[in-house]
Design the sequence.
């Protein structure tokens, strides 16, 4: 055994994985402290397509290039996260969930394409990016890791003070004038480097653990950042070394999961024994404090006394009264309901489904005739069957996903989809069954356990919520992989199938049922879908209020906790039912992406759910059709289609889409420019002086375009006439201009009456506001001003009607 | 001489709806300034906009007659206590030392000189024996004082403080105000968001009453009057709220 440990290969691997653990621990500390633990996880997953693209470009296994590819696509993933946060209302957890699932989905698609293209067994290297394969590590790999670790270490040493302040108090750093955004990016880049470099050795799924666990464990031992960094690096190193040695000693154990479990062991030991925040240390302090407090107890009245000590001055009493009951003058009339964007909310989804249906039929027809032309057998039944399996699975996931997205628990969905694995293994050992009810029950138990452990670690162990989730799900997942490795060998379950799913075989794998032969997948998915529908229908109001306002729900006597765990159980059940078809990584895409896309389309819960189901069905249909046409991975393609729909919604959604926003901005700018022109003409008519036409030349291309559009708009509406290069108002134009000027002068008078503004500060605000006061508001201000006819500059306020 | 702080026509909008609207505030000489107003009046927003932490829809801010970016080293900042994670693994002295970071420049670490200075600042806020404590172990009032010490360590000429008295007991309040009075004696300006109306006349020289718009500003004796307070706290004018909504929906007359 000693010989085995000292073998050259083992030494190389030890050095590599040790260094990997150390650098991940070091950099991961910042991720954990900034509550971005799971961003590292997202990056690890986002690296997959980059690896494949690099492989396609080079045509062979070249580790440095593939890692560079992973780094690039990992960073693209981060940029997507940043952009979604900046420009859309997608919440961070949903954004992470989307990157986490759509990118690997794309990776799966590419990977299969590569396997089709390069038959020379070269695909072997690619799978290791998901599971990790320490054994294949070469000296070159170790050097690469060494360089990455050195870069991380050097950056942390040089920018220690900057990273520290950035993590602790970003606002203060920003007030110091530091380029916080650039620093953010740099730190994120380092995280990406630390993650990517570890992909081939421990795999995407396990890399998150190496990033999170050492720092989370080290936090129990110290209250100082510098010590925490060293400790986390040391824990990471030790995790890597011990994990590798264990897996080398018992050579039927996969290295990745063993390394993760070693990290978990460090974490648990630290949780218990850590001298600063460990449970035992905190318990001792707690007991001692309680003893001291008993002798020192002071009643809390002191503070209350201070509150009521001196009587409030009369003025303040008025002020407070006012706050409670606004005086008559301020009572607002009921605000008019915001205008609905569409009067018929069903048109858009109906049109979308119809278009999708037509496209699907056409595509299927083309696929079929192409097959016939190739001399292949017809398989429409198979096509439709597989699509229907996909739709059923996607629908069930999408419905529950809406609640996950709304409750900002997308990542719990991701966590559960990984952590149900041990439940499957246990159910298999107990019943010998790998399908059906035992599996679902096992998964449900693990789903609830995941949520429970995450919550307990957070409240009891004072671990940040995201980090505790990361610790829990990676540990359970690793345990599940090992258990399946032990017990699942005789069964059909292998980790590969669980990860990627085999929807390709779902239609043909049939089981007898009452004399019929039914696809097994449907046998589990249809009851699951029904269960989900019943669950949502029965608990509609409970789920709604718990999602919207858990505190209120609790105050009203709803069983918030029970509803939460039920939801988690359902998520786990759906997840495991969908495993067989799409696998655990991509089930996240089915859970989160449709819900997140639907949230962009509508503001109503029921219509959000309908949209989500529609999006799920479309990704199932076109995922299959696309994959069948390209001959690639169906589940991955489904995730890609889901991602494409999400991207399209971000850009095109009617109310929230970027294009709509952009158009509204432009049309507003044009309207303002046009109103400024007629306003100027009106003033010139009011007080005649040499007509000047357009005053200042446009300063930028944008302004020039807006100017041009404004003139065009005015001419088209018949507001102005042009004669000899000068503009003149028409009657209609004069009426419009009068409304603008009226708004301007009313606002100036309003400001003067109610606010203490210097006279030269009235014009600018009114110049901005004149474009937004519609006639109703003008009447309101007019009433408020009680018949005032002259503005603060002595000019007449035009009447509403001449 | 240019005014200490010149906030000119500043508007900050969230999705085009103003949360701070055409605010004009000029502080022409060093003094203690209280920003007062009801919840949601935009008090913190005003401070953050002045410091350039959030983008302005319109307007400009000049400090000592120059753009904010040019005078960063003369500005001190005390953010709201809730804005940071008090579980963060740093000691009290570490936090105070952060005040010296601005003047240190890139890559350099604080040395003995900075440490000495940070200890001095801790002494000024009455926490000399706490330097090795983890910040989470302090009481709310002590945490507030640590933030104050950090601002002192910045050696600034103008300080922006976001609710420095929030959750502070009476004794601490005294300590903090004595300190602020000291700073004013040294010719520094303090702009503080303040919640406790009763203590405004006692401690501050100048007051800015804010409720999305600036309702009034001036010396406390003349401006902190029942009428102005009534205007500030008596609910916003319905017209203003409707106009803000109009800005958001983009309604118009042509």
Sequence:
């Amino acid at each position: 055994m000693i010989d085995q440990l000292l073998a050259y290969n083992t030494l190389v691997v030890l050095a590599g994985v040790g260094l990997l653990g150390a650098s991940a621990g070091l950099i991961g500390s910042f991720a954990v402290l900034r509550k971005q633990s799971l961003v590292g996880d997202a990056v690890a997953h986002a690296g997959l397509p980059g690896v494949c693209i690099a492989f396609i470009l080079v045509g062979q296994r070249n580790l440095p290039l593939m890692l560079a590819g992973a780094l690039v696509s990992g960073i693209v993933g981060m940029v997507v996260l940043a952009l979604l946060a900046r420009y859309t209302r997608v919440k961070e957890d949903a954004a992470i969930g989307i990157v986490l699932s759509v990118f690997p989905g794309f990776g799966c698609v590419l990977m299969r394409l590569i396997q089709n293209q390069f038959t020379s067994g070269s695909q072997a290297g690619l799978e290791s990016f998901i599971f990790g394969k320490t054994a294949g590590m070469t000296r070159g790999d170790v050097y690469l890791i060494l360089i990455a670790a050195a870069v991380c270490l050097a950056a942390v040493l040089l920018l220690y003070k900057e990273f520290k302040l950035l993590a602790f108090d970003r606002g203060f750093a920003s007030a110091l004038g530091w380029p916080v955004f650039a620093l953010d990016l740099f730190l994120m880049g380092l995280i990406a480097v630390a993650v990517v470099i570890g992909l081939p050795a421990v795999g995407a799924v396990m890399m998150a653990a190496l990033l999170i666990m050492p720092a989370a464990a080290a936090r129990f031992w110290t209250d100082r950042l510098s010590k925490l960094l060293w400790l986390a690096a040391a824990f990471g190193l030790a995790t890597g070394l011990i994990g590798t040695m264990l897996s080398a000693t018992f050579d039927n154990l996969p290295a990745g999961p063993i390394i993760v479990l070693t990290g978990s062991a460090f974490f648990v030991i630290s949780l218990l024994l850590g001298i600063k925040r460990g449970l035992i240390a905190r318990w001792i302090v707690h007991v001692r404090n309680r003893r001291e407090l008993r002798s020192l107890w002071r009643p809390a009245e002191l503070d209350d006394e201070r509150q009521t000590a001196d009587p409030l001055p009369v003025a303040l009493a008025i002020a407070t009264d006012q706050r409670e009951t606004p005086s008559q003058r301020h009572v607002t009339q009921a605000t008019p309901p915001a205008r609905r964007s569409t009067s018929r909310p069903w048109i858009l989804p109906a049109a979308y489904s119809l278009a999708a249906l037509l496209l699907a039929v056409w595509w299927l027809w083309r696929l079929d005739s192409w097959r016939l032309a190739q001399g292949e057998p017809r398989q429409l039944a198979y096509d439709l069957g597989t699509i229907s399996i996909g739709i059923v699975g996607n629908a069930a996931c999408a419905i529950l996903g809406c609640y996950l997205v709304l409750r900002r628990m997308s990542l719990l969905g991701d966590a559960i989809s990984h952590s149900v694995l041990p439940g499957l293994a246990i159910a298999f050992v107990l019943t010998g069954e790998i399908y059906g009810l035992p599996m679902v029950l096992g998964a449900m138990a693990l789903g609830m356990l995941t949520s429970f452990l995450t919550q307990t670690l957070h409240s009891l162990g004072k671990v940040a919520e995201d980090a505790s989730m990361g610790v829990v799900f990676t540990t359970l997942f690793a345990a599940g992989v090992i258990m399946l490795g032990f017990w699942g060998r005789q069964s059909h379950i292998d980790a590969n199938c669980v990860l990627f799913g085999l929807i390709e075989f779902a239609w043909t794998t049939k089981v007898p049922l009452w004399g019929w032969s039914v696809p097994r997948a449907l046998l589990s998915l249809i009851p699951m879908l029904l269960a989900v529908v019943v669950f949502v229908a029965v608990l509609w109001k409970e789920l709604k209020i718990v999602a919207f306002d858990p505190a209120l729900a609790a105050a009203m006597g709803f069983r918030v906790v029970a509803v939460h765990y039920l939801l988690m159980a359902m998520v786990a059940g759906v997840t495991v039912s969908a495993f067989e078809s799409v696998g655990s990584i991509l089930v996240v895409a089915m859970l989160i992406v449709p819900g997140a896309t639907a949230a962009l389309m509508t503001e109503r819960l029921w219509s959000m759910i309908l949209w989500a189901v529609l999006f799920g069905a479309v990704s199932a249909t076109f995922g299959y059709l696309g994959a069948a046409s390209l001959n690639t991975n169906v589940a991955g393609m489904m995730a890609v289609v889901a991602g494409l729909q999400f991207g399209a919604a971000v850009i095109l959604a009617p109310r929230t889409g970027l294009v709509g926003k952009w158009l509204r901005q432009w049309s507003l700018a044009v309207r303002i420019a046009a109103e400024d022109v007629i306003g100027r003409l009106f003033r010139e008519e009011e007080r005649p002086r040499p007509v000047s036409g357009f005053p200042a030349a446009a300063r930028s291309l944008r302004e020039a375009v807006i100017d041009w559009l404004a003139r065009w708009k005015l001419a088209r509406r018949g507001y102005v006439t042009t004669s000899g290069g000068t503009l003149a108002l028409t009657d209609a134009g004069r009426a419009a201009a009068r409304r603008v000027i009226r708004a301007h002068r009313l606002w100036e008078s309003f400001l003067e009456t109610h606010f203490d503004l210097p006279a030269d500060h009235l014009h600018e605000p009114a110049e901005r506001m004149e474009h937004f006061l519609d006639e109703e508001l003008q009447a309101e201000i007019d009433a408020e001003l009680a018949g005032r006819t002259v503005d603060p500059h002595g000019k007449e306020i035009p009447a509403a009607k001449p | 001489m240019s005014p200490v702080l010149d906030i000119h026509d500043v508007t900050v909008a969230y999705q085009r709806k103003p949360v701070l609207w055409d605010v004009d505030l000029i502080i022409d000489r060093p003094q203690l300034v209280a920003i007062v107003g009801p919840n949601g009046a935009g008090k913190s927003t005003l401070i953050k906009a002045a410091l350039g932490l959030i983008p302005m829809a319109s307007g400009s801010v000049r400090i000592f007659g120059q753009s904010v970016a040019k005078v960063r080293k003369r500005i001190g900042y005390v953010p709201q206590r809730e804005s940071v994670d008090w579980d963060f693994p740093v000691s009290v002295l570490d936090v105070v030392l952060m005040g010296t970071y601005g003047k240190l420049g890139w890559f350099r670490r604080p040395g003995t000189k900075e440490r000495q200075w940070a200890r001095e600042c801790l002494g000024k806020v009455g926490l000399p024996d706490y330097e090795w404590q983890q910040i989470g172990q302090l009481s709310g009032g002590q945490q507030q004082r640590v933030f104050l010490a950090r601002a002192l360590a910045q050696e600034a000429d103008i300080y922006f403080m976001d609710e420095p008295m929030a959750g502070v007991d009476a004794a601490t309040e005294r300590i903090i105000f004595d300190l602020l009075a000291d700073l004013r004696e040294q010719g520094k300006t303090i702009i503080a968001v303040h919640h406790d109306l009763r203590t405004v006349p006692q401690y501050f020289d100048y007051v800015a009453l804010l409720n999305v718009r600036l309702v009034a500003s001036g010396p406390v004796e003349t401006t902190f009057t029942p009428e102005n307070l009534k205007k500030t706290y008596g609910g916003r004018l319905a017209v203003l709220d409707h106009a803000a909504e109009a800005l958001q929906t983009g309604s118009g007359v042509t």
Observations:
- Chain B touches chain A through 73 residues (CB under 8 Å).
- The two ends of chain B are 46 Å apart (CA to CA).
- Residues 170-185 of chain B form the longest helix (16 residues).
- The CA atoms of residues 76 and 123 of chain B lie 18 Å apart.
